[in-house]
Amino acid sequence: MKFSLFTRRAALAAVSGALALTAIAPAASADTTRLRFHTYFGTEIDHVIKKFRDTVKEQSGGDLRVQVFHGGELVASDQLLEATSKGSIDIAHGVGSYWSGQVDIGNIEAGLPGGWTSIEEAKTFFASEPVDAILNEAYEEAGVVYLGKGWGHDYDLLTKEPVTSLEDLKSRKIRATAQIGKVLGSLGIQTVYLPAGELYIGLSTNLIDGAIYGGPVEYEQLKLNETATHYTRLNMLMPGWTDTYLANPDTWNALSDEHKTIMQDAIAAYAQDLNDWLADGNKSVEEKGGVFTFATLPAEDSKQLTIAAQEVWQEEAARSERNDKLIELLIENAKAQGRL
Questions:
Q1: Tens digit of each residue's pLDDT (9 = 90 or more) over 118-156
Q2: 181-222, pLDDT tens digit by residue?
Q3: Residue 293 CA from chain centroid, whole number
């Protein structure tokens, strides 16, 4: 399987949405319901998209069809929520952090440092009744229907030199996003932000000593293995992000119960296929060998990262009463897992 660099980070650049939207075909014909589904991924997941479209068509006997648009094709990824609420698209596949300015829980449900350390843990957390109720409430207020979650994958540290503990990082400069930068900074680790396109130069010129950006397959796609070969699993956030699926209320309510079930099942299968694709890509890089040397941060250091992340958690909690409730649930889960 060939993997190409995800557009989930590049898709924030918009194309001419207004011109593109005028070219959309009518939402339905006399005999067939047609749904416009917009993902933030690019053509690298076309094999997953094809299976998704075929499943919907087959399960509905051809009465339900899905037209899928890639990242940035009609709207920028940070506009997916708004486009869905307005009906410009029918179903959105995005990430909560894209629209955190519009939905208070966006950053939390996308994934905070220390939030969860396995896909199973994340699935259990989001499947709980209190968490599910909060997400449904938040997205209903935003004018869309919350359909469910999907799962990203690895999001760990790549460095030029081996890392055996957090102490090793105190003499190095690490590329990190703002939230992770706050966590590392509180532990005396210097961070700086660089976009993905500058990581190769940053590492090769010693501007940075390492980066927290993604998983093995992404680092290999960026050819960072030419400048840094030590991959360290931090056990700070796995999956490194979660996906969110949303529907336009008018479109969704117009579907029959049978068609709603078909779509919900097909989206769940699509989300799992994406996760499997990500996992297979990262696994293939590790198994072929000769690309990265893999290590894992000591458990006590990983726990220290979760403790340090509490400042970031409380900043999100302060944004709203609903956020405070969701953070409390996140804290309860972390305590149950022994990380707090």
A1: 999 999 999 999 999 999 999 999 999 999 999 999 999
A2: 999 999 999 999 999 999 999 999 999 999 999 999 999 999
A3: 25
| Phi and psi angles of residue 149, each rounded to the nearest 5 degrees, phi first | -115, 160
Task: Judge contact between 43 and 5, C-beta under 8 A.
Answer: no
**Residue 220 near residue 290 (C-beta atoms within 8 A):** no
Which residues make Cβ contacts (< 8 Å) with residue 299, sequence separation at least 6? 235
How remote is the C-alpha of 287 from its chain's centroid? 24
Give the tokens for residue 262: 């078909």
Q: Which residue has the tokens 């893999």?
A: 294
Q: Answer for the pair 157, 218: CB distance below 8 angstroms, yes or no.
A: no
pLDDT tens-place string over residues 210-220: 999 999 999 99
Query: Which distant-in-sequence residues (6+ apart) come within 8 Å of 105 by Cβ?
Result: 96, 134, 135, 138, 320, 322, 323, 326
- What backbone torsions phi and psi does residue 256 show, to the nearest 5 degrees? -70, 160
Residues contacting residue 67 through CB under 8 Å, at least 6 positions apart: 25, 34, 35, 36, 37
* pTM exceeds 0.85, yes or no: yes
